[in-house]
Design brief:
5-stranded antiparallel β-sheet, binds zinc ion, 2 helices, alpha+beta
């Protein structure tokens, strides 16, 4: 698990904007990210511990990768919807 910071997530989001992978919601906090060019598919998981945000991706990267950057947009929208519903 990697902690998400405003600095590392910004980089990841920028990379995701260039790569434009396809993001699918598996369930709240779990996303399937597919690279449209290579077809490679990875699963991203988000968790919150003591108000700090963490993410996990099953690709080889050991940093906040663009799969995390791509799925956090969907995650923020969903999290806000859940918050509003609750
Ligand atoms: Zn990844």
């Amino acid at each position: 698990m990697i902690e998400i910071t405003s600095a590392n997530i910004e980089k990841a989001i920028n990379k995701a904007r260039q790569t434009k992978p396809f993001v699918k919601v598996i369930e709240f906090r779990r996303y399937s990210v597919t690279n449209k060019t290579s077809g490679a598919n990875y699963t991203v998981k988000f968790s919150k511990i003591n108000n700090r945000k963490f993410a996990e991706c099953n690709c080889k990267a050991i940093v906040v990768c663009y799969h995390i950057g791509a799925s956090i947009g969907a995650h923020i929208v969903l999290a806000e919807q859940m918050h509003t519903a609750a």
